[in-house]
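BUG: 3D viewer hangs when loading the predicted structure for this chain

Environment: internal workstation, default settings.
Expected: structure renders.
Actual: progress bar stalls at 90%.

Input used:
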Amino acid sequence: MKQKVKGEETLLKIENFIEKQEPIKANDKTYEKIIFIYSVAIKELLTKLEILKDEFKIFYDYDIIDHIQTRIKKPESIIKKMQDKGYELTYQMMIENINDIAGIRVICPLKKDIFSVRNLVEKLPGIRLLKEKDYVTNPKKSGYSSYHLIVEVPVTLSQRIIYVKVEIQIRTMAMDFWASLEHKMKYKAKGTITKKTSKELIEYAKIITKLDNKMMLLNKEV
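Structure tokens produced before the viewer hung:
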């Protein structure tokens, strides 16, 4: 007979312990509890990624990850995204449909490291890979390039284990430089940039791609 793992009966999704139709209120206790759980999920995943980073440095003398950034989406950004997509403004709809409330960005030195990190994430104990989008092999029309994963992370609380969705973006330092500047330009222009600027950004993204490819070749020669 298969022995039940301790806590197995309490593996829940975060939406299982809130009121189904409770409306989102950024300053209420429910929102505070939910965001706390998302922040714990980030800490859990960040620890695992930092261990991978240190392992490759110490055991293989290789920096597979340059640095890692984290963030929790602001309530006004969550609500705007839900409104844009036509979702009812309830906690259940928020948790079920907004996958990037908790986000981690992994910055790698070389393009090949992106795919190595992606494979390592998939093998992390307890982590469930839900979705992935490869904007490295197939960049967006805007020129944006990055590898996106949506994973579920087990968050261990005193009375239960809850699976929480976290978005992971994996990109090179060059890709991150382009994406950061593009984001700032769009923010400054209130979401709309001119066709000329858009065309130039696409050209610069192509230059970034060539640079990443040349750096990989150069790394092989060293």
